[in-house]
Amino acid sequence: LLSKQNGHSSVAHQHYQAERLKALANYYLGNSEEAVTQLNRAIEGLRELINQSNALDSQRVRYDLAQSLSDLGLISISSGRLVDAQRAYREALEIHQSNRTDQAALALARNNMGYLYHQIGNYKEAWREYQLANQTARATARHRVMISVANGMGAILHDLEEFTEAERYYKQAIQIGFDNELENVLSTSFMGLADIERQRGNFNLASDHLREAAGRRNQQLNERLYHLLRGRNFLDMGQTQMALDEFDIVLERVAEHTRAAPEGCLASFFRAVALDRSGNAEDATEGMRVTLKMLADLGYSNFFVSAARKSLDFAKAQQQVLNSPQ
Q1: Fewer CB within 10 Å: C terminus or N terminus of the chain?
Q2: Running DSSP on this structure, what letter comes out for residue 29?
Q3: What is the DSSP letter of 260?
């Protein structure tokens, strides 16, 4: 199919659809840079086709353009390109807003914008987009989007340490999943509950929730988060070596698939904390140096401030060491 591109619009449309699918395959195989290149080719080609198509065909092409932009937004976020992600998600949302016939796609686009705003620390706009996404998802009975929205709203409250309310949203997502035979997409919900219980000091219950999540892992990103949360649970339990083993797994997974990722930054940081608690001050300082480099490569850090706030004394002490004359 990829070798048959010609001037005929329907064949060209199929070509760009195939280019998008090939990009997604490359992304899930860990070839993020190639995936971005292929998606950009598909996006530019679809834009050109819109001007060449009749009204009905143009609507179909615009839908595929929006889907390709959403894919580009996802990959951009996972690779630390937040400006690119914002541009892609915004254009996808505008397309779906103008195409009033597909409310389900609009709900998903708003959910994506909510997630993006959360990542950059704009909780007010994130909450607004999640609320709008939830209204549309409920009206169209899009249960997967409803689960994602509930998780997103739970994550915002989680960041703000409103644990009781965050727990309510995670459990709401789980209930929607069980009610609609979507148990396999609930790993994020269970991991959210696990981290709340860790912060409450209920380590055994946190482990139980992580075991629930482990049986439902179906995304590469969830696997990295799963091992990160296991490591943090072990660290808070005082099982330093087991924590280090989990953080090393996260760093290996990140190195295989992307240049930087939030889970990698956090794993590197808490690995340094674990080394410090083990008496390995020099290795801990080097770990902090690596963490700061990863954060710089990623380009945004709201997630880090939120997750690491209870270890800020360590971070400040390490910053002083790194800034002191050698």
Answers
A1: C
A2: T
A3: -
Both tokens of 237, joined, read 């339990």
Q: From CA 130, how far away is CA 89, in angstroms rounded?
A: 14
Residues 6+ apart with CB under 8 A from 316: none
The helix/strand/coil state of 3 is helix
pLDDT of residue 307: 86
pLDDT band at 118 (very low <50, low <70, confident <90, very high): very high
Side-chain-facing half-sphere of 59: CA atoms under 13 Å: 8
* Residue 216 near residue 187 (C-beta atoms within 8 A): yes
pTM of the complete model = 0.87
Q: If you write DSSP's letter for every residue of 21-57 in order, what string do you get? A: HHHHHHHHTT-HHHHHHHHHHHHHHHHHHHTTS-HHH
- Among 276, 287, 202, smallest CA distance to 236 is for 202
Least confident range from 41-50, 73-82, 84-93: namely: 73-82
First vs last C-alpha separation in the chain: 59
DSSP string, 119-165: HTT-HHHHHHHHHHHHHHHHHTT-HHHHHHHHHHHHHHHHHTT-HHH
Token pair 């794993």 is at which residue? 267
HSE (CB half, 13 Å, CA atoms) of 34? 13
Side-chain-side CA neighbours of 212 within 13 Å: the count stands at 19
Q: Are 258 and 32 in contact (CB under 8 A)?
A: yes
84-112: b or e for each residue (b if 16 or more CB lie within 10 Å)?
bbbebbbbbbebbeeeeebbbbbbbbbbb
Among candidates 228, 291, 296, which has minimal Cα distance to 265?
291
At residue 279, the 3 state secondary structure works out as coil
